[in-house]
Design brief:
7-stranded mixed β-sheet, 18% helix, Molybdopterin biosynthesis moea protein, domain 2, 4 domains, 8 helices, alpha/beta, Molybdopterin biosynthesis moeA protein, domain 3
């Protein structure tokens, strides 16, 4: 990206950086084009949840490795129980017991059976397992009789209740492809293959920098004229939720020295996310420093909230340039802009592609107003009742009203070319999360 012509004036006047007006899709495409999957790392399988396999996984063994029993019962030779019924049971001599995890030292021969537990390897000679329920074991126990012989009351087909070796996976088989998202079930598969470590696309390191003289860190006393920095924490949490690793740099003050000092700490990160300092009315300092240190674009995006946006790259000597996503300062704007552009960038670096949230169609229960021809993302609480989704606006929609974001689980869209959406109208809703406590 080419740096805009810039006077490098440090006055507190209007910005000297040219601005473009982009649709959400145009901004998205320009940003995502700068990202690709990161390099692999090898790590413990339990640490890989939510990451993507970097290599194909082929099985080093058959699963199960041996034929084993699908039931608690008796391993027998099928020809010994041919014609057996409750009226005409077949008597077999019980010559041993085999539990899961053990291998029988005895073989089943004609006229004999071995008592077997679920998952235990089938003894040599046996080809069928008769469940306890199809024998007189319970009656024998209740009568205090020994189990050195057993009556089989069912004529089962050969291989009944026998799980063959390799039924799940064969040695050398491709089990999981590179690019597979690792969930709990994939971790179970990897463990079942005996793998304790695996190669995955590494998590991106995302540096997070809040800017502004008015900000104070949470936990510190609040002096007059100051506000607590919400963006650093909310964006760090959103980075974690997206699968990234936040590197929180704190607050940069509105002076050149502090901005430069903070940006020195960004080297080696995979992405820098800043908040504030990128809109037309902002002081020049953030724009000046970013433009001095790299190739930056400052855009207006046709969306509400989150109109001002910056994107570019910071250059570092002998290190790769770091992509920079500059979010607006208002906390809701910052969160919505990160949702639209930062989260897909992280998922792209994770090897998952630029993921979109699931969207549903729902009915508005209150109006959405569009005053200036931008696409509106209204914060709503989505409910599912009577077979339909209902979107309840969560209160005042000002970009500084962070509590309305905390009450929302979705963003209802009013298109740029519509001046409003009325209660009762259908809208598209981007689901930020699904309420796991309620079946929707």
């Amino acid at each position: 990206m080419q740096a805009h012509e810039h006077s490098h004036s440090h006055s507190h006047g209007h910005s000297h950086v040219a601005e473009d007006m982009l649709t959400v899709e145009e901004a998205f495409e320009r940003i995502i084009a700068s990202f690709s999957p990161l390099e692999p790392e090898e790590k413990s399988i339990l640490d890989c949840l939510g990451q993507v396999l970097a290599v194909d996984v082929n099985s080093p063994l058959d699963l199960p490795p041996l034929a084993n029993s699908g039931m608690d019962g008796y391993a027998v030779i099928q020809s010994d129980i041919k014609g057996a019924s409750s009226d005409a049971p077949k008597m077999l001599k019980v010559i041993g017991t085999v539990a899961a995890g053990h291998v029988s030292s005895q073989a089943v021969q004609a006229g004999t059976a071995i008592r077997i537990m679920t998952g235990a390897p089938i003894p040599d000679g046996a080809d069928t397992v008769v469940p306890f329920e199809e024998t007189d074991e319970v009656e024998r126990r209740q009568a205090g009789r020994t189990l050195d012989e057993i009556n089989i009351a069912s004529d089962l087909p050969m291989y009944c209740n026998v799980r063959p070796p390799g039924e799940d996976v064969r040695r050398g088989q491709l089990v999981l492809k590179a690019g597979t998202l690792i969930r709990a079930s994939e971790i179970g598969v990897l463990a079942s293959l005996g793998l304790s470590r695996v190669s995955v696309i590494r998590r991106p390191i995302v540096a997070i920098l809040s800017t502004g003289d008015e900000l104070e860190a949470a936990g510190q006393p609040l002096s007059p004229g100051k506000i607590y920095d919400a963006n650093g924490s909310s964006i760090a949490a959103a980075v974690i939720a997206a699968g990234g690793v936040p590197r929180i740099l704190g607050i940069a003050r509105d002076n050149l020295e502090d901005m430069h000092r903070k940006l020195e700490q960004v080297a080696g990160s995979d992405l820098l996310v800043t908040s504030a300092g990128v809109s037309k009315g902002d002081y020049d300092i953030v724009k000046d420093v970013l433009t001095q240190r790299g190739s930056m674009n400052f855009w207006s995006v046709r969306m509400r909230p989150a109109k001002p946006l910056a994107f570019g790259h910071l250059n570092y000597p002998s290190q790769k340039p770091v992509p920079l996503l500059g979010l607006p300062g208002n906390p809701v704007s910052a969160m919505v802009a990160f949702e639209m552009f930062g989260r897909p960038a992280i998922s792209t670096m994770l090897g998952r592609g630029a993921l979109a949230r699931p969207a549903v169609e729902g009915v508005l229960t209150g109006p959405i107003y569009n005053t200036d021809g931008r696409r509106v993302y209204a914060r709503v609480e989505v409910e599912h009742r009577d077979g339909a989704y209902y979107a309840n606006p969560t209160g005042p929609q000002g970009s500084n009203i962070l509590t309305s974001m905390s009450r929302a689980n979705g963003l209802a869209i009013c298109p740029a070319d519509e001046t409003s959406k009325a209660a009762g109208e259908k809208v598209t809703i981007i689901m930020l999360d699904w309420n796991e406590e309620v079946d929707i």
